[in-house]
Specification:
NPH3/RPT2-like; 5-stranded mixed β-sheet; NPH3_dom; mainly alpha; elongated; ubl conjugation pathway; two-stranded antiparallel sheet
């Protein structure tokens, strides 16, 4: 720590109870009250350097200085300077002495080489050029905030600290901890982050604004510094635990969150999505300004695919009807949808060059490069949306456990995710099942409304087996699950048989080329091509498969749903359910076991009239 010594005379001040005076042969002729302490001094040395005392002593020899900066200690140091007694100045008392000198009017107008000018020179040439000293001076300014702002001390300190933080070459002036931090890994916070985390929120905000304005610090380093500061001052991983503190603490924390939101770098990955959602959680609990929550929501939507389910579990404000703030999550998803709409290309869509011709660039090489870049970008975008779909479904599983969660909010969040983001619906089915079990009082129409978010085609075999035996699901959904599971089993059964037939055809073709007298094989080949049975009583030709598909299509006619169909549906369900645990061929037979009374009416509700068999096979 750098020190400056002013004056050379030995210290002759003494204390007697509440009175402080100086040993001298000349009697004192001035009394000054400072901070409940009486100073008995001489007019001449003090008035020659203090404009304030010159004005006050013109009327009386006894004056009082209420609210003196630095109290009695600072006034005594100023008095000693007037007497020429040695005074030591360092980072610990420079600000108090500078404010005291300003209060007494110890300027160049009173005397050349006065205390105020000497302190300014010491600050600028020594203290504010060294990291540790500059931080110590900056931390002492809040105790004399008004005077420091008026004198410009605070702004000078902020600027000095920002310059030292953004100048790696100033390592010789940095503290030992800073030097150690410089040699750490690139993924760690910058060396100055921990030191700045000791500052108050206002000073930290001003320093970080200056650091960002310098433009020499990477956005990731700024984001790491923000994260270090938040961990230092926001409790319990950014609040909850009975909403931490209360009263004045809440006001300070609210200010901190709002300042942090305003400091976020513009770059996308400067801070993690988990950090953003923690700040949003704190902003919600502390009732931060709408602008703060809107900014955090916007930033979280930019990188939502990197979040975890726990990050989205934002507690509701006091008095909220739900356990978690689902409205905040819905706002994030709406912001995400707006961003995708503004981008002009929906997530999960094919790469731009695959959707049609585009204008050629200057060369074929640049065109190919641009196409490859767009393909990579589209693939990465689709992967991000799939991760978001899994994230939202995991969130729905958790919030579905809340007995106070309205059905409309659950459905709205489920439908906010585009279909391309859900290659499978197992997690969404878990959320639906959880909600049904937590809300057993739901009527039939509400259960149907909830289950409309499910696509039974995208359920895995395990989920389908569970759904087929789930008594809480509407009967219509169970029938759909059974139908698609049996169709999947039929496809799995037929695929290897058709492949074997094709292999046999290829073998026979090769044989006919090698043998001129292959009349019998040629006859067999033509028989297979014409759709003749292969010997097992089954027609696996192309025409045979088409005829089978045609017969299935007759089951997909559009009929109105009637309540009296429930009995027939129940019979089909109870008959088809055991088929899920049998072999694939047994599941096909279960499909054929549809009651003879109303087979069309049974499955017609599974297929909208606008959907054809060809479309279903393509999916």
């Amino acid at each position: 720590m750098k020190l400056m010594k002013l004056g050379a005379r030995p210290d002759t001040f003494f204390t007697s109870g509440p009175v402080r005076s100086v040993y001298t042969e000349v009697a004192t002729d001035l009394e000054i009250f400072v901070d409940n302490c009486l100073f008995r001094l001489h007019k001449f040395p003090l008035l020659s350097k203090c404009l304030l005392l010159q004005a006050l002593c013109a009327e009386s020899d006894a004056v009082e200085l209420p609210g003196f900066p630095g109290g009695a200690e600072a006034f005594e140091a100023c008095a000693k300077f007037c007497y020429g007694i040695a005074v030591t100045v360092g980072a610990h008392n420079a600000v108090a002495l500078r404010c005291a000198a300003a209060r007494l009017g110890m300027t160049e107008a009173a005397d050349r080489g006065n205390l105020g000018a000497k302190l300014d020179a010491f600050l600028d040439s020594c203290l504010l050029r060294r990291w540790r000293d500059a931080l110590a001076v900056l931390r002492s300014t809040p105790r004399h905030a008004a005077a420091c702002e008026e004198l410009g001390v605070t702004s000078r300190c902020v600027e000095a600290v920002a310059i030292l933080a953004t100048d790696p070459g100033g390592g010789s002036n940095a503290s030992a901890s800073a030097a150690a931090g410089c040699s750490s890994s690139l993924s760690s916070p910058p060396w100055w982050a921990r030191d700045l985390s000791e500052l108050g929120v206002d000073l930290f905000w001003r320093v970080m604004v200056a650091v960002k304005a310098a433009g020499t610090v990477k956005a990731r380093a700024i984001g790491d510094a923000l994260s270090v500061y938040a961990r230092r001052w926001l409790p319990n991983g950014y609040l909850p635990a009975e909403q931490a503190g209360g009263g004045g603490d809440d006001a300070n924390h609210r200010l901190l969150v709002e300042k942090m939101a305003s400091l976020l770098p513009a770059e996308r990955n400067a801070v993690s999505c988990g950090f953003l959602l923690k700040l949003l959680k704190a902003a919600t609990v502390l009732r931060a300004s709408p602008a703060t929550k809107a900014e955090l929501t916007r930033r979280a939507a930019m990188q939502l695919e990197d979040a975890g389910v726990g990050d989205l579990l934002i507690p509701s404000c006091a008095g909220g009807e739900t356990l978690y703030d689902v409205d905040a999550v819905m706002a994030i998803l709406e912001e995400l949808a707006l961003r995708h709409a503004a981008a002009g290309m929906p997530e999960g869509s094919p790469p731009p060059h695959a959707r049609g011709h585009h204008r050629r660039s200057r060369s074929a090489e640049s065109s190919e490069f641009e196409g490859a870049r767009r393909s990579t970008s589209a693939a990465a975008s689709h992967g991000a949306m799939v991760r978001i779909g899994r994230l939202v479904d995991g969130f729905l599983v958790e919030v579905a456990k809340d007995p106070n969660l309205p059905l409309d909010k659950l459905v709205a969040i489920a439908e906010a995710v585009p279909d391309c983001a859900r290659p499978e619906h197992d997690d969404l089915y878990r959320a639906v099942d959880t909600y049904l079990r937590v809300h057993p009082e739901m009527d039939k129409s509400s259960r149907k409304k909830l289950c409309r978010v499910l696509n039974c085609r995208k359920l895995s075999e395990t989920a389908s087996m569970h759904a087929a035996q789930n008594e809480l699901l509407p009967l219509r959904v169970v029938v759909q699950v059974l139908f698609f599971e049996n169709a999947r089993a039929a496809a799995a059964l037929s695929a290897p048989t058709v492949a074997n037939r094709v292999a046999g055809v290829k073998a026979l073709l090769a044989k006919t080329r090698r043998e001129a007298d292959g009349g019998e094989d040629e006859h067999r080949l033509r028989g297979l091509a014409a759709g003749a049975p292969g010997g097992g009583g089954e027609d696996w030709s192309v025409e045979g498969l088409k005829r089978a598909a045609s017969r299935i299509s007759t089951l997909r006619m559009k009929l109105e749903e009637e309540d009296d169909d429930d009995a027939d549906d129940e019979a089909f369900v109870h008959r088809a359910r055991p088929g899920l645990v049998r072999s694939a061929s047994s599941r096909v037979r279960a499909l054929c076991a549809i009651p003879a009374g109303k087979p069309k009416r049974m499955l017609s509700r599974l297929w909208p009239s606008s959907r054809s068999i060809a479309a279903s096979e393509r999916h």
